[in-house]
């Protein structure tokens, strides 16, 4: 299959780069979750002209609400809009054993990270170790900044309107900073 061959090619290239000691950009694991919008839209984060829309599976929301670990196979997708226009997507995906290839100081449990361009292709300019460095501070909440929003997300249709209203409220200052994801990433990029 063409797609399989392409993905295998990417994995091979990443392995080759890693073997050569070159920093592979993006990663070979997290593909764009094309059906993400069929999951649960659990939060909106807005500040200034930045707006982020967060989606994950119903199973992940239910687990969060029961106080259980986010299940194996979960994908979280964030749409990132600037000035009302889609700027990019970022995603996290959790699979049993995925963390094992990372050094303990980098590892975020079994989560892997990926950034996508608006056309949904992987952004190969993005160093995902940067994502991991910041999210690692959230180890106490399964490496997530918005676990509390998942816990608060109503799953019934009746609750959806309320959720949309609540979602407009700004996030309580996260442990990192009272900034949107996009803002903290921009400032982190400038600092380097
Ligand atoms: C400097 C800190 C920082 C970096 C770097 C960072 N993030 Fe985040 N991320 C956050 C914060 C803070 C949030 C919560 C949303 C908000 O406040 O905007 C978040 C939320 C997320 C979420 C929603 C799930 C959650 O944790 O709440 C995903 C998915 C995500 N980030 C993926 C990524 C990816 C992929 C990268 C790298 C391309 C990345 N992040 C880099 C700080 C960061």
Largest sheet: 5 strands, antiparallel
Number of helices: 6
Shape: globular
Looking across the biggest beta sheet, what order are the strands in? Answer: 1-2-3-4-5
Span between N and C termini? 41 Å
Mean pLDDT: 83
Key traits:
192 residues; alpha+beta; binds heme C
Question: Care to give the gist of this entry?
Answer:
It comes from Bordetella genomosp. 1. With 192 residues, the protein is an alpha+beta fold.
Describe this structure in words.
Residues 50-146 form the Cytochrome P460 domain. 32% of the residues lie in helices and 20% in strands. It has helices at residues 2-19, 58-66, 128-135, 147-152, 157-167, 181-190; strands spanning 40-47, 50-56, 75-82, 85-94, 111-116. A five-stranded antiparallel β-sheet has the order 1-2-3-4-5. The model is unreliable at 12-24 and 173-178 (pLDDT under 50). Residues 45, 52, 54, 76, 78, 90-92, 113-115, 126, 128, 130-131, 134-135, 144-146, 171, 174, 176, 180-181, 184-185, 188 line the site of heme C. Residues 45, 52, 54, 76, 78, 90-92, 113-115, 126, 128, 130-131, 134-135, 144-146, 171, 174, 176, 180-181, 184-185, 188 line the site of heme C (HEC).
What's the helix and strand layout?
Elements: H1 2-19, E1 40-47, E2 50-56, H2 58-66, E3 75-82, E4 85-94, E5 111-116, H3 128-135, H4 147-152, H5 157-167, H6 181-190
Antiparallel strand pairs: 1-2, 2-3, 3-4, 4-5
The structure holds heme C.
Residues 45, 52, 54, 76, 78, 90-92, 113-115, 126, 128, 130-131, 134-135, 144-146, 171, 174, 176, 180-181, 184-185, 188 line the site of heme C (HEC).
